[in-house]
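Final report, closing paragraph on structural work. Over the funding period we assembled a curated collection of sequence-structure pairs, and we close with a single example.
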Amino acid sequence: MTQQKWTAADLPAMTGRTVVVTGASSGLGLITARQLASAGARVVLAVRDEARGHSAAATMPGTTEVRQLDLSSQASVRAFAAAWTGPLDILINNAGIMQVPRARTSDGFEVQIATNHLGPFALTILLLPHITASTTAHCPPSTPPPASSQAAVMPDPTDPASAAATPRSSRPARTPGTGSSPGGSGTPPPGSPAPDRP
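Its predicted structure, as stored:
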């Protein structure tokens, strides 16, 4: 049986949906934003360079908006999330960098880790209440929305005090002197009888 290749023509109608695409001024982000706009979505291009973002938006049909976002800056991520109002249906964390000179951000993080991991994670957590609210609004009355209780207890990833106050996940205690969890293999603690050997 031949497998049919999925294309942008298979996108469902996106009318009435709001989508944020990071790094939407070039590459995959640009193509993704353009196709979603073509399908009827309101697309917000979250970009570092607003001039390039507006140039990209000018090539797209439908409703687009350009907003400044620098994922390497926690302040920029916070500002973007704080300015967001209303529901958000889809967040596409597309932006990323690679093979850049070694450097640190104003927050003290290595720039590639900050841009590719810490920034997108913080953005997702901070926008999550809008995403879950949108999911609830679009679900039929008989369909429960995805569980979002975790959002209420997750720490603010951009606040060191919040993260420090969050208890670590419980893990099996190690038996002193064994280098392993209870019941695991390892060297017996001092004073234990030697194991029988053949």
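Residues 13-139+150-162 form a domain with the Rossmann fold fold (CATH 3.40.50.720). Residues 148-153, 163-171, 178-185 have pLDDT under 50 and may be disordered. We thank the funder for supporting this effort.
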